[in-house]
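Design request, tokens follow.
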């Protein structure tokens, strides 16, 4: 497996020139977020990714997390790596100083976590989930709960989990059966939770579980779910009635312990209610939405890691004589046109995904911190629209790119020793956990498009069309081609939005059948928009004579490649959605 090199040049371009980090840094609460500090944070986070986390990626895959005599042990070196994050205060990067955090923007934290997820996805699940748990307690916990839990969790001395699903429930949380019985001012919880990432491990002094359970008088369904905080170690130092009963044996992310957790085998696990009774699912969405964007970021990160390995292999591997090769001596397979096509397909979509994620992360900052309520509302709408796209489209593309990376390696990619297969195995879970692609697609179609009769998506598409029209008149061939392809693609998207509203009235199964193709379409359209904007910026820098390393010229090429090789699929997806949805349910289930 080749080394991981943080793509700081493109990360900084996306942050500073495309997203506008300086505007985010100017928001109230980010007074310490100077450009110099941001550069320092990115450089040091990159060193940790490259020097600390990446070397452990293969170790975690080979050795995995194991359970011995009832104790969960992580792979060799993982505890020391966690201490590196704790000693540097890294877990507190996006949190306020009052809890021991750095008070820096969420978008900067996103860039840091991209590098860490790419370096070692299985490891970085732990800080990712801990940050999500901090958000839930920070937003909905009592003053006492915040004072007790947040300093230790923000520092990383304690880690956090979310305990949602159960064996009989799956993604249907209305079927949750775990119980919480009052005991004084606390509660005793009982039940079993499955698929709990870092449910138990040996890297921190305490593990703080956020658990969905039902009170004795709770109504049925999701309206009867409450949220509880249940520590592994109680305030008096005693062990709580919480234990890991087994670890799942998984296709990938072997270094991450995925636990089956049992609560209350000996009288009930002590926990506290967070917020109001029966509002647990609402509260948990603070953690779930954070996790959805973070898992979407994993799609980007694993794609970047797979791309780097495939690109380096293609440069070094000599096989055959490339078509049109006129130089003497051997040539790497990177000179074969189809290998180049694979690498360009990977590279352009990675750049688009990075722009989508950083735009969403910056919108989170604006939605929470801008002084203008209208700007906060607009940013909130942007986060709402981009979340299912960032999670659903980016993980599907990330999985595809990991597969393309293996393809570049040829037969060597199928051999575990090269490491290409690990990226594909690790990527496979991202389209499943924290809401499958279908769940994200139905969220986009039903909650983000149909519920407001297309108003929100209509505004976004109008903005994209405006940029496309402007670019079609540009005095530059590449910008004109990009603008033309964008105009065609956004037209398809607009027609699908209109069709969804008509189809919903005709048969609600039709929008559901079209949901995933619509998600893929919107991902390509929004990704294309990001690449188009990047191309405009790159053209301006080229005109200024600022391209000293060839970066901006390369950006023009990748943006045009996206327009010509990715956006062309939008028209086909339009036809799939509008003409093909009725066929989805057209066959009797007995004939499947």
């Amino acid at each position: 497996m080749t080394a991981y090199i943080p793509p700081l040049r493109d990360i900084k371009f996306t942050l500073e020139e495309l997203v506008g980090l300086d505007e985010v840094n100017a928001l109230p609460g980010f007074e310490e977020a100077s450009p110099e500090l941001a550069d320092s944070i990115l450089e040091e986070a990159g060193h940790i990714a490259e020097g600390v986390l990446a070397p452990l990626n293969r170790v975690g895959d080979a050795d995995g997390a194991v359970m011995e005599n009832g104790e969960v042990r992580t792979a060799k070196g993982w505890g020391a790596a966690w201490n590196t994050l704790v000693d540097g205060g890294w877990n507190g990067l996006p949190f306020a100083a009052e809890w021991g955090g750095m008070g820096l923007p969420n978008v900067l934290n996103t860039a840091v976590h991209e590098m860490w997820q790419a370096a070692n996805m299985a490891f970085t699940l732990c800080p990712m989930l801990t940050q999500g748990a901090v958000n839930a307690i920070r937003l909905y916990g009592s003053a006492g709960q915040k004072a007790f839990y947040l300093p230790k969790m923000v520092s990383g001395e304690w880690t956090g989990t979310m305990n949602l699903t159960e064996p009989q429930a799956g993604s249907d949380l209305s079927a949750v059966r775990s119980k919480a019985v009052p005991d004084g001012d606390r509660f005793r919880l009982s039940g079993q939770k499955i698929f709990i990432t870092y449910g138990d491990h040996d890297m921190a002094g305490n593990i703080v579980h956020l658990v969905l359970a039902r009170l004795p008088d709770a109504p049925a369904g999701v309206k009867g779910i409450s949220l509880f905080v249940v520590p592994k170690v109680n305030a008096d130092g005693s062990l709580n009635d919480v234990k890991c009963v087994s670890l799942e044996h998984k296709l990938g992310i072997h270094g991450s312990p995925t636990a089956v957790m049992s609560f209350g085998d000996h009288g009930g696990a002590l926990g506290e209610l967070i917020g109001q009774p029966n509002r647990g699912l609402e509260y948990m969405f603070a953690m779930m939405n954070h996790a959805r964007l973070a898992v979407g970021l994993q799609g980007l990160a694993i794609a970047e890691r797979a791309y780097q390995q495939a690109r380096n292999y293609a440069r070094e591997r000599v096989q055959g004589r490339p078509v049109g090769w006129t130089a003497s001596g051997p040539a790497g397979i990177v000179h074969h046109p189809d290998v180049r096509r694979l690498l360009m397909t990977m590279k352009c979509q990675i750049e688009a995904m990075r722009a989508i994620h950083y735009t969403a992360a910056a919108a989170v900052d604006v939605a929470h911190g801008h002084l203008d309520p209208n700007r906060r509302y607009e940013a909130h709408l942007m986060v709402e629209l981009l979340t299912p796209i960032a999670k659903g489209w980016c993980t599907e593309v990330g999985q595809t790119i990991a597969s393309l990376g293996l393809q570049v390696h040829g037969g060597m990619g199928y051999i575990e020793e090269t490491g290409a297969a690990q990226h594909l195995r690790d990527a496979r879970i991202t389209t499943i956990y924290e809401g499958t692609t279908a769940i994200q697609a139905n969220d986009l179609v039903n909650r983000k498009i149909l519920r407001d009769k297309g108003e929100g998506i209509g505004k976004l598409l109008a903005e994209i069309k405006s940029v496309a029209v402007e670019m079609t008149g540009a005095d530059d061939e590449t910008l004109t081609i990009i603008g033309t392809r964008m105009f065609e693609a956004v037209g398809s998207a607009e027609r699908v939005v209109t069709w969804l509203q008509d189809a919903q009235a005709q048969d609600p199964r039709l929008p559901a059948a079209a949901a995933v193709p619509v998600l893929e379409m919107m991902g390509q359209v929004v990704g294309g928009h990001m690449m188009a904007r990047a191309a405009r910026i790159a053209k301006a820098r080229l005109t200024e004579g600022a391209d000293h390393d060839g970066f901006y010229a390369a950006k023009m090429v990748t943006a045009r490649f996206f327009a010509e090789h990715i956006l062309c699929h939008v028209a086909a997806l339009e036809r799939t959605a509008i003409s093909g949805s009725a066929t989805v349910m057209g066959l009797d289930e007995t004939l499947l």
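Comment from the thread starter after seeing the answer: thanks! The mean pLDDT is 95.
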